[in-house]
Amino acid sequence: MTPPSTSDPAPRRIGANYVPSRGWFYSWLDLDPDAVRRDLADLAGIGLDHVRVFPVWPWVQPNRGLIRQRAIDDLLTVIDLAAEAGLDVSVDLLQGHLSSFDFLPSWVLTWHRRSVFEDRDVRAGLRTYVETVTRAVATRPNVFAVTLGNEVNNLWPANATTAATSTDWARELVSTAKAAAPELLVLHSLFDDAFYAPDHPFVPSDVTEIGDLSTVHSWVFNGVSRIDGPLGDATTTHADYLVELAAATATDPRRPVWLQEIGAPLPDIGAGEADAFVRRTLEHVGANPALWGVTWWCSHDLSRDLLDFPDREYDLGLFTVDHRPKPAALALAECIPALRRPVVAERPGLVCDVDLLRQPQRRAEVAPGSDFHRAWVQARSAGTVAIVPAGRSADVLRERGVVGTVPAEDVRPTWVDARD
C-alpha cells in the first residue's frame, strides 16, 4: 500500500483501539466470537471505520520454535467479525506492553533472560513471528496496516538497548513485515518519551523515518494536564503538538502522522469534562494538515472484577462493559464528519532552536512545560501554527504550508500555569 500524502483527498481514518468488554485481552485465551461481534457493533454504530487489535505475543509464540495456529485462527476470526461490522483492521504484532503490564514469553525470562532488542536468537524468533502473523492477516482484505507493537519502548529498561540497536531492531522488523505484505502499511509505534526524554534510547527519528507513516500517542497524564488544567489550551492542544512535532521532524515534509492513541484519562480529565475534552482536542488536531487519522483509546471500559490495573485504566472506554455509550463516544461521533475531511492549510511557523532529528539529546527543551512548548501553546491559541526547526529550507516550508516564521523567544505566554 502506498502511504498517503498530507494533501491526499482520501478521508481520514477514525477508529478505536479495541479493548474487549469481556475479559480484556485475556479474552484471547478463550475467544468468544459473539462477545466480539457485540463489541464491534458498538463501534460501527457510532460511525467509526476501523479498529486496532492486539494479539498477545507470548500466547501466539510461547516457544521460539512454536507459533500456535489456533491463536492465528482466533485473530483471523476477529478480523472477519470486523469485516461483518463494516470495519477495517490494523494489527499490532508485539504485545509486548499493554495497560501497564508487560507480556513477554518465558523464553526471554527467568533463566533465559535476554534482551528482545539485543539478543540475536530473540531477534531471529521475532522475525519469524512478524513474518508469519503478517502473512496471515494480509489474507484478509479489510486489514490495512500492521504495527510492530504497542509502545515497544515501554519494554526498556528491563530489556537493554541503545539508540543504535533500537533503530536497527525496528528497521529489521519493519523490513520483515513489508516483505511479507508489501500492500499493507507497516508502522513503528512508541510512546512520547521518544520525543521528550533526553536519555531515551528510542529517538524521534525512529518515529519519523521508519515505516510508512509516523504514529504518535497523546496522553495528558505525562504532566501536560498539570500545566493549565483539564480543559486548558496546553492540555487540549497536546495531541496537535505531538502531531506537529512528528511532522516537523520528518525529512519528508509530506509524511502523514497517525494519532494512533488518545484518550481522556481519569483523574486528569474528570468524568464531567470528557465531552468538552474530546471536542476541543479533536477540533485542534483536526486542523493540522499532517493528520492522517485518529484512533481513540479505547473501545470499552475494563471490568472492576479484574485486579491490579492502574485506576485510570478502568474507565478509558468509549463504551461501558455493558455497552452503554459514554459522553466521550457521543462527542467523538459528532466530531467525525468534520474530522474526516483532510485540510490543506497555510499557517505561520514557530521557529524551534532544537532539531529533534539531529539533536535528540535536547528533547527536554520541547517537552511539556518547556519554554518552547509554552510559546507554542500561546501561539496556537490564535490559530493553527507549525513547528519549524531552525535551518529548514524554504522548499520544505512551502511543502508544509508554512507562510512566515516567528522566533519562539518572541512569543510571551500570557496564560496562567495551574501549578502556580
UniProtKB/TrEMBL annotation:
Q: Which SUPFAM superfamilies match?
A: (Trans)glycosidases
Name the UniProt record assigns to this protein: Cellulase (Glycosyl hydrolase family 5)
